């Protein structure tokens, strides 16, 4: 586990990576926590995938040293509201791990 390679990438490169990987939904993993938040905040899987495939990163990605990953927050206006999806990137895992989601 680690995020050294991802940490060296620009925001544009990370954004492109997330968009490319999420094009195949089988490469997007939803944690138990995010499933609870999706239900609580009435955010669908389709909305999450839309944010990942077309959203943008507005904030600097943050390392999660405990989990050994780099967390990126993708944002997009979808379903009549602003949505944000946080994904964890790990150099050793080609999949996207969806950590949390919220909508305003």
Describe the 3D structure.
The chain has 104 residues and is α+β, with helices and mostly antiparallel strands. Helices cover 35% and strands 38% of the residues. Strands 1, 2, 3, 4, 5 and 6 form a 6-stranded mixed sheet that branches. Helix 2 (11-22) packs across helix 4.
Keywords:
104 residues; alpha+beta; six-stranded mixed beta sheet; 35% helix; 38% strand
Give a short overview.
The chain has 4 helices and 6 strands, in the order H-H-E-H-H-E-E-E-E-E. By secondary structure, it is an alpha+beta fold. Strands 1, 2, 3, 4, 5 and 6 form a 6-stranded mixed sheet that branches.
Provide a count of the helices: 4
| Beta content | 35-45%
- Encode the helix/strand succession as letters: HHEHHEEEEE
Give a quick account of the main beta sheet: strands, pairing sense, barrel closure: 6 strands, mixed
Radius of gyration: 13 Å
> Which stretches are poorly predicted, pLDDT < 50 over at least 5 residues?
none
Number of strands: 6
The dominant shape is globular
How far is the N terminus from the C terminus?
Answer: 33 Å
Oligomeric status of the shown chains? single chain
Average pLDDT: 95
Structural class: alpha+beta
Helix content: 25-40%
List the helices and strands and how they pair.
Elements: H1 4-7, H2 11-22, E1 28-30, H3 32-41, H4 45-54, E2 56-57, E3 62-64, E4 69-78, E5 81-90, E6 93-103
Parallel strand pairs: 1-6
Antiparallel strand pairs: 2-4, 3-4, 4-5, 5-6
